[in-house]
Amino acid sequence: MIRPVRFAAALGLALSTTWAAAQAWPSKPVRLVVPFPPGGIVDTVARQLQVPLQQALGQPLVIDNKGGAGGTLGSGEVARAAPDGHTLLMVFDAYATYPLVYPKLPFDIARDLTPVTQIVSNPLILVVHPSVPANDVKGLVALARQKPGRLNFASVGAGSSNHLTGEYFKSVSQTFITHIPYRGGGPAQQDLIGGQVDMMFLSAVLAQPFVKSGRMKALAQTGAQRVAAFRDLPTVAESGYRGFEVNSWVGLLAPAGTPPAIIDRLQAEVAKIVHAPDFAARLNEQGLKGIASTPAAFGATIQAEQAKWRRLVTERQLSLE
């Protein structure tokens, strides 16, 4: 039997050791792995967070773009990294669906990685190349039904929000539109601008400059409500598909076993940044909403996303293996 005094002393020592470790962290540059090429939503958020977060941590924050296999290559690398807080992972919603579309995933998202915080959320914008002869959702659906399989849509990879949103849209609109997966948001956007693909569900922050410049045409947004950046653009639900709602998100994770004190400090620092008035206003202008959820709340979000998409993945047989 452990005496209460001994137990309290042991617990106090453990807590003080963990706190000391967190206070000493970071002791060297922190590597932030973005598992996609530059130019996508994850990379965009990472670079906006880079300067204020490294100032808060007192060490350089080095962004390392490790694209490939829909983001699973870079994610797997972080899953195998030392859990000392010096290697972190920034992902978007595709992370939650990895186990659904990659049955032979070489790491376990529940076992090998731990949630830190959901950083932002944002709706997707249904954009098309200017040459596509449709100016709204109704016109696009009519065109797709006239030419089944002739229209195509880009995504940043299988299981990503823009892939699953495209499949969801095909399901509710009863259309056949061909999916074209890319290795990341940058290449997908460039091919849409170049006319190699017809359409895409693109994060609001990424779509905004292309729509303003006329290089893309926006038809609808996927959120339940319109965002300030696209206040004149109807939602898909307003366009005739009631109940249609999809929001993309970006979040931060660490290798499993990272000390809780480090996780908590990371979450707290991110929260200070995204809720600072100037930073929050900038996010709002881009169609992004700062979240900075707790690790537990972010974990619950990931589980909810899996449940949400499981039925669609099963019905449309989206597994890659």
UniProtKB/TrEMBL annotation:
Q: Which UniProt keywords apply?
A: Signal
Would the keyword Signal turn up in this protein's UniProt record?
A: yes
Lineage, top-rank taxon, reads Bacteria
Signal peptide annotation? 1-24
Query: Which SUPFAM superfamilies does this entry report, sorted A to Z?
Result: Periplasmic binding protein-like II
One protein family per Pfam: TctC
> Which PANTHER family does the record match to this protein?
BLR1237 PROTEIN, TRICARBOXYLATE-BINDING PROTEIN
Q: Which family does it belong to?
A: Belongs to the UPF0065 (bug) family.
This chain belongs to which protein, by name?
Putative exported protein
The species is Piscinibacter sakaiensis (Ideonella sakaiensis)
